[in-house]
């Protein structure tokens, strides 16, 4: 005879675990926030202890909480771009046991008396956290925070090697097209490949294969979530769906959250300087160039000075996010005297609000995927200066596919900065960019509204989480409707 407990669906409890870097946390916190409004779900958002200390100041709904586990590095060790690989290895070798222990806690053993976890959403750049969950009978869904296009390129690494397009010599013509990545033949060049592909010298390169394997490991999950939409990347999404049939394109998530909750969610690890918005209030419409290179990119002194002089020479006003660690060796060279009227520097800005401000006319960006979709959703044309990783693919989308800005890739000269800023801020070409950007923003707004594609995929994700949760076996025997 079936017990009463067996008939009762267990409470759905989703654990969301981003890679411990600002861009990943932002995206996944937005997803977690949207899920907490879906009804019937409890959300635990897992950070490393290092980030937890900086994020736990946020308050959320009663069905939302933050948890933390150690990342395995000493407290005083920096966690900036230079330590990305070290942090990755530490998480892989030192944090999996803590993760397993956390999953095993539940009910009486949970610090808040919450029910056991019934579904995990893990950052796909750390697929090794899927295994302990699945071994305990907890279904795992993967979230990749990069663009569908970048993911597709990583997934095609073996095909590029087989076709003899990877690796290529250091002195090769970078404008040569790449032909072996389906759906990208029309625009992808060597120059646009992620840095790991550009840097490699041998087909057996360990890092190259690590990136490829991380990407294919999503096939071991119950589904793949992407912060994109059909409108932004339809041809590539259809390719990805041929490998991962259960793909949810729910982006841009910051816009989806706003559509669901009528407010935005900020997950800044640094405190935001809101005086940027007051300064913008005093500027004319579309008159300001917003400059930010995200949370990790570092500039050399030379690069910094090329941007600085390029901006000054353009004659336009600018608001620049000058993180304390942005420029190697500091920014003593900056002379602000006499510039107060037309320039403003902040250590960290409320970026989404800045981009939506009527005074912003252009965004100089490193083309991190969050920054790219935030700009697109706000209808702001971009000048892209991608440095590494997936940014090199994203900036090609901006410049050649969406045609909503210009791609400075591989060039960092003041004349180039000046001429690109002028092209996006002045004259007929600038009007065209603004028009395309405005149309994109409208379409993005449609995709996250009720009946939009992204909202449709989000609703499907919630339904699937609820039904997967009934079959999670950590707490109790799976519901009778579950496959045996
Ligand atoms: N960001 C912000 N304030 C700033 C600069 C950046 O809030 O002054 C946010 C931005 O809105 C985005 C994230 O930091 O959500 C950066 O993510 P992205 O993927 O663009 O780049 P990454 O930092 O991962 O290189």
TrEMBL record:
EC number(s) stated in the UniProt entry for this protein: 2.4.1.-
GO molecular function, one term: quercetin 7-O-glucosyltransferase activity
Keyword Nucleus: no
Keyword tags: Glycosyltransferase, Transferase
A Pfam family: UDPGT
Top EC class for this record: transferase
Keyword Heme tagged: no
Membrane-crossing segments per the record: none
Family per record: Belongs to the UDP-glycosyltransferase family.
Name used for this protein in its record: Glycosyltransferase
């Amino acid at each position: 005879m079936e017990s009463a407990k067996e008939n009762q669906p267990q409470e759905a409890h989703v654990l969301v675990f981003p890679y411990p870097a600002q861009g990943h946390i932002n995206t996944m916190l937005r997803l977690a926030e949207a899920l907490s409004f879906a009804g019937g779900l409890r959300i635990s958002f897992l950070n490393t202890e290092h980030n937890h200390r900086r994020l736990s100041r946020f308050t959320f709904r009663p069905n939302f909480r933050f948890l933390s586990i150690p990342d395995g590095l000493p407290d005083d060790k920096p966690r900036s771009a230079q330590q990305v690989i070290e942090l990755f290895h530490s998480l892989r070798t030192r944090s999996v046991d803590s993760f397993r222990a956390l999953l095993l806690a539940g009910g009486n053993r949970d610090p808040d008396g919450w029910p056991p976890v019934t579904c995990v959403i893990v950052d796909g750049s750390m697929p090794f956290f899927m295994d302990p969950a699945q071994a305990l009978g907890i279904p795992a869904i993967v979230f990749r925070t990069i663009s569908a296009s970048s993911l597709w390129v990583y997934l095609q690494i073996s095909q590029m090697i087989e076709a003899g397009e990877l690796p290529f010599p250091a002195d090769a013509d970078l404008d040569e097209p790449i032909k072996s990545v389906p759906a990208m033949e029309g625009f992808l060049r060597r120059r646009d490949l992620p840095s790991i592909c550009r840097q490699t010298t041998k087909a057996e390169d360990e890092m190259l294969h690590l990136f490829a394997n991380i990407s294919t490991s999503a096939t071991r999950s119950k589904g793949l979530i992407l912060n994109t939409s059909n409108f932004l990347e339809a041809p590539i999404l259809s390719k990805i769906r041929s490998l991962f049939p259960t793909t949810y394109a729910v982006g841009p998530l910051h816009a989806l959250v706003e559509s669901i909750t009528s407010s935005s969610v900020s997950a800044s690890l640094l405190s935001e300087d809101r005086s940027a918005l007051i300064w913008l209030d005093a500027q004319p419409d579309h008159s300001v160039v917003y400059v930010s290179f995200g949370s990790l990119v570092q500039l050399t002194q030379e690069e910094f000075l090329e941007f600085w002089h390029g901006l000054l020479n353009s004659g336009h006003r600018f608001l620049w996010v000058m993180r304390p660690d942005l420029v190697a060796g500091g920014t003593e060279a900056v002379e602000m005297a006499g510039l107060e009227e037309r320039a403003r520097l902040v250590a960290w800005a409320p970026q989404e609000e800045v981009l939506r401000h009527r005074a912003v006319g252009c965004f100089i960006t490193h083309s991190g995927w969050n920054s790219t979709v935030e700009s697109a959703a706000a209808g702001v044309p971009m000048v892209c200066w991608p440095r590494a990783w997936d940014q090199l693919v994203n900036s090609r989308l901006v410049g050649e596919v969406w045609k909503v800005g210009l791609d400075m890739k591989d060039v960092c000269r003041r004349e180039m900065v000046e001429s690109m800023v002028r092209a996006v801020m002045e004259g007929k070409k600038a009007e065209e960019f603004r028009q395309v950007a405005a149309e994109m923003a409208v379409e993005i707004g449609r995709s996250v509204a009720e009946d939009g594609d992204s909202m449709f995929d989000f609703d499907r994700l919630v339904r699937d989480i609820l039904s997967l949760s009934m079959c999670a076996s950590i707490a109790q025997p799976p519901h009778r409707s579950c496959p045996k």
